[in-house]
Design brief:
alpha/beta, 7-stranded mixed beta sheet, Aminopeptidase
């Protein structure tokens, strides 16, 4: 369980412990890259002279300014970062969900809902017309310096992914989300909110790729060393967009009610979690 009250001393201790967690994971044997992964890390992918950023892949992120220059006031602390490490054409629908969960409409980036709140976000996207799966870098090897800095500066990290029913261990055609990661409180709130929204949610178990239980996983690289990984089946993601519009070019402007029900459920769980995390 994550402590309800986090003071400055606790935060400092958590930050100091974060490198130790990473070292421990490496010492006992890091999760190997998927056999299907062509690149062992984001760094290796970025260094490939055969790839062009903006053509083969893209990166989008937003870190909100915190400007505290007044001794009388204190600005809001951005507690949560939402990430989509395999967005665009790699795991379809995760870029759009990343934006919506962060508080932005995926079509025009307008604050949605207008009253907020908004969260920081980062995504890596495949931009090719085909063969985007070759750009997949497993989450334990996600070493983009921006996303690592954002996650290490956040109390909470939520990572969005896509999977097949076979990978999830579910029956063919299942519309479901698997909830994994090391933050048990966050997982509980998500399971409850998905249930209230009528969305089938399953506790992730088994291998790291689905369960998100390695300290090296980008979702667990938060201040607290724990976050959440959501794996959405293909069938669930397809049902979130208008028929015939489930493409990278069309998805953002053709979302269905299920898309917004999912985003709202996640945002509500984040609000519940953040309410237990006052910064003293």
């Amino acid at each position: 369980m994550i402590p309800n009250v986090i003071n400055r001393r606790t935060l400092i201790a958590a930050l100091a412990a974060a490198p130790a967690l990473s070292t421990l994971g490496a010492a006992v044997g890091s999760t190997p890259a998927s056999a299907a992964d062509q690149y062992p890390s984001n760094t290796a992918l970025y260094a490939d002279p055969g790839l062009v950023e903006g053509v083969d892949y893209g990166r989008r992120y937003r870190r909100h300014l915190i400007d505290d220059q007044s001794p009388q006031g204190r600005p809001a602390f951005i507690r949560t970062t939402v990430v989509a490490p395999h967005g665009g054409g790699i795991e379809g629908g995760t870029s759009e969900l990343c934006l919506a969960v962060a508080g932005y409409h995926p079509a025009d980036l307008a604050p949605t809902p207008a009253a907020g709140p908004v969260h920081d976000f980062w995504m890596f996207e495949g931009l090719r017309p085909s063969n985007n799966s070759a750009l997949h870098v497993t989450s334990t090897h996600c070493d983009d310096t921006v996303v690592r800095a954002m996650c290490s500066g956040s109390l909470n990290v939520l990572s969005l992914h896509g999977c097949t029913t076979g990978q999830a261990g579910l029956e063919a055609g299942a519309r479901a989300v698997l909830v994994g990661g090391l933050n048990s409180t966050f997982r509980q709130y998500l399971m409850e909110e998905f249930g209230a929204a009528g969305i089938r949610a399953v506790t992730a178990s088994g291998e790291e790729g689905i369960a998100g239980i390695s300290p090296e996983n980008i979702c667990n690289r938060s201040m607290l060393g724990a976050g959440v990984q959501l794996e959405l089946t293909t069938e669930l993601r397809v049902a979130m967009f208008a028929p015939g519009k489930n493409t990278r070019a069309d998805r953002a402007a053709n979302t269905l009610p299920l898309f917004w029900s999912f985003a709202t459920a996640v945002r509500t769980a984040i609000q519940r979690l953040e309410a237990t995390q006052p910064i003293l």
